[in-house]
Design brief:
The complex is a heterodimer of chains A (288) and B (125).
Chain A lengths: L1 E5 L7 H12 L5 E5 L7 H5 L2 E15 L9 H5 L5 E4 L8 E4 L9 H5 L5 E16 L2 E8 L7 H8 L7 E5 L6 H7 L4 E6 L3 H16 L4 E6 L7 H9 L3 E5 L3 H8 L4 H4 L3 H17 L2
Parallel strand pairs in A: 1-8, 1-9, 2-7, 2-8, 9-10, 10-11
Antiparallel strand pairs in A: 3-6, 4-5, 6-7
Helix pairs in contact in A: 1-11, 5-6
Chain B lengths: L1 E6 L17 E6 L5 E5 L9 H11 L4 E3 L5 H9 L3 E3 L6 H9 L18 H4 L1
Helix pairs in contact in B: 1-2
Amino acid sequence: MIIAVASGKGGTGKTTVAVNLALSMKDDCNVQFLDCDVEEPNAHIFLKPVIKEQNKGYIPVPEIDEAKCNFCGKCSKICVYNAIAVLPPQNFKKGTTLVFNNLCHGCGACSNLCPQNAIKEVHKEIGIIEKGDSDNIDFIHGRLNVGEAMALPLIRKIKKNISLEKIAIIDAPPGTSCPVVASVKDSDYTILVTEPTPFGLNDLILAAGLVKKLKIPFGVVINRSDIGNREVEEYCQKENIPVLMKIPFSKDIAISYSKGIPVIETFPKYIVHFQEIFNKIKDFTSNV
Amino acid sequence: MKICVTSEGNNLDSKVDYRFGRCQYYIIVDTDTMEFEAIMNSNLEAMGGVGIQSAQLVASKQAKAVITGNVGPNAFQTLQAAGIEIFTGASGTVKETIEKYGKGELSSVSSPSVGSKAGMPNKNK
């Protein structure tokens, strides 16, 4: 089973929920933890895995064989990301074809469709994938190189490690853009973590729209539940979205977080609550 | 000689558009005859890479120089590869700009004048 933890708004507590859920389940089932927030992975701070394997992540980018290129311009026209400029020869000036690697999404259209067979794909390193163990939990995360814009290939590579016999918990990036879609896609259930503020509600509505479109069943965890207003709860009620858990605003939780200590270690009473979330999810997904 | 001026409108009395990749029109003028062609920028709403697209367009029109307000890094690289001279910091109407260019009052640049995405609609307008 795959459970993704996403949020819309950043800083609501995705990693807190994902990490503590994993830790609360690890004695009863085989748990995999996948931190797909490759731009800013942080679950390792809490899970402290022993990294046993490091692999580089690449995307294919085009390399032009200038000897074969006849400047027909097809590659430039088909590239939806405008990553190739073809400048045919003009008035004694030699023609040239420029590749902008930072715009390339690695789709392969140019190399596949070049009539001259003048484009080959070369690997461009975009980050690394690290695998390890954290006390009975399989841990996998990716780190995107600083300045790199293409997170998706790295996220897909992390997700290739999912083993369906295990419970895979995915810590997704914030927001509702492509990296989030790539992270939550194919999950059996998505937990949306939010906070009871206007900003939290606004982004929850966006995130709920995303998972609805992907037809993934989902529920909400309200973090810092005793601040702000009641609008998030009213929204969930109106939309029939289950509220899986409420975590109160607590200085002690914040202190524990700031030291990289999971909530359940400081407050073991939360283990039961996180186990309840898992049981609810099992119920929801078995009834589908 | 043909040059390209980025413009807010489709004629020589229009104001110079300060953006290269996301300008409204490209005015391609023959400085000898003052005959011109106004090309509407179809990349205006594109997500990214518009400077590259626009530079290819300008090159395909055989313009030898581009006069605009600002040019970003990708457009700069493409224009340079095409051997097109780049003049930034232009203001006033297209016609005034061409006159200044004719008198040699504009100076060309050897590096991009703004960073990536500077011409995005919500950034400069």
